[in-house]
Design goal:
The longest helix is centred in the middle third of the chain and has 18 residues, at about 105-120. This protein starts with 8 loop residues before the first helix and ends in a 6-residue tail after the last helix. It contains eleven helices and eleven strands. It has helices at about 10, 20-25, 30-35, 40-55, 70-90, 105-120, 135-145, 200-210, 225-235, 245, 280-290, and strands at about 60, 65, 95-105, 125-130, 150-155, 165-175, 195-200, 220-225, 240-245, 255-260, 265-270. The strands form three sheets. Strands 3, 4, 5, 6, 9, 10 and 11 form a seven-stranded mixed sheet that branches. Strands 1-2 form a two-stranded antiparallel sheet. With about 300 residues, it is α/β, with parallel strands linked by helices.
Length: about 300
């Protein structure tokens, strides 16, 4: 078998289409008319591909042309190869469409600027509808159930109508005022400090877990916005326990320590099977999966 130079794609792969064109239209002359070239061009192209595969592909007669014995599979595979190569050379900016993305506010603050910027540079025709104004799992779940999201970054959902894939782990951290010195090996070391509660379902669930390890939840103040919680801790008003991603954009002088008892929240990429048939959704998923947060 001779060598086919694929680096000269436009010239060398054109012969792959000519044997099937000749078969489909019945003769070299009919194929030439459809392809917009001369009969001699078609004949030369077929001779080129026959030389490459090392066997006769078409048999010409007065009534037209027929596939040579054992050649039909080669002709079909050649056409499939041409389609694959055509797909490989399609420009990436052909991908377009609307992608509806939902995530927790703390994830969005770290994720969206980086990921959406990267998607725009590669696929400027993709549009976004972003829902990231919640720290509640139920808000994301409801939008998924009502088909208002193509991609969700949330805790796992036990529903076979969705495709769920592990994405990342976000550890909870101790957020301490700048004046606090030393490490924290047990929760009794935090006595005397006001506790500032992040008012989300996930955070309240974590507090319940930590109570069995000696944590005393003497809440001084409860706030829904992690930014405001971090600002109070930064001012020395108390301490808090927040997910690493919720702290990352806001941390100033606060001290950030690991919990004596590790607790994490696990995020998944969740989509509907129908959404995964979209080229735009898959392009965005690729960039999301390549992203790494500060907490990892």
């Amino acid at each position: 078998m001779s060598e086919l130079n694929l680096s000269n794609y436009a010239y060398e792969t054109q012969p792959l289409s000519d044997p099937q064109s000749s078969l489909r239209h019945g003769s070299f002359s009919a194929a030439a008319a459809i392809l917009g070239c001369t009969q001699s061009n078609v004949s030369h192209a077929i001779a080129t591909i026959e030389k490459y595969v090392g066997r006769k592909l078409l048999v010409r007669s007065r009534s037209g042309c027929q596939p040579a014995d054992g050649s039909i599979e080669i002709i079909l595979k050649g056409h499939q190869l041409l389609e694959i190569l055509d797909g490989m050379r399609q420009p990436s900016d052909d991908v377009s469409g609307l992608v509806r993305l939902g995530c927790f506010r703390s994830v969005g603050a770290n994720l969206l600027t980086q990921v959406l910027s990267a998607v725009f540079l590669e696929h400027p025709n993709i549009q976004f509808d972003v829902f990231d104004d919640t720290e509640e799992e139920d808000g994301i779940r409801e939008r998924l159930l009502h088909n208002l999201l193509d991609i969700a970054i949330s805790c796992d959902i036990d529903d076979k109508r969705f495709v769920s894939k592990p994405f990342m782990v976000d550890p909870y951290m101790l957020l301490l005022p700048p004046s606090f010195e030393g490490d924290v090996d047990c929760y009794s070391q935090l006595r005397g400090l006001h506790y500032i509660q992040h008012a989300s379902t996930c955070s309240r669930s974590v507090m319940q877990q930590l109570k069995s390890h000696g944590f005393e939840n003497n809440t001084f103040r409860s706030m829904a916005n992690a930014h405001n919680v971090a600002a109070l801790v930064d001012a020395g008003a108390g301490f808090s326990i927040l997910p690493r991603l919720a702290i990352a954009p806001f941390q100033q002088r606060c001290r950030l320590l690991k919990l004596p008892t590790p607790v994490e929240r696990h995020f998944y990429l969740i989509s509907r099977p129908a959404s995964l048939r979209s080229g735009a959704v898959n392009a965005v998923l690729k960039h999301v999966q390549n992203w790494r947060g500060d907490g990892n």
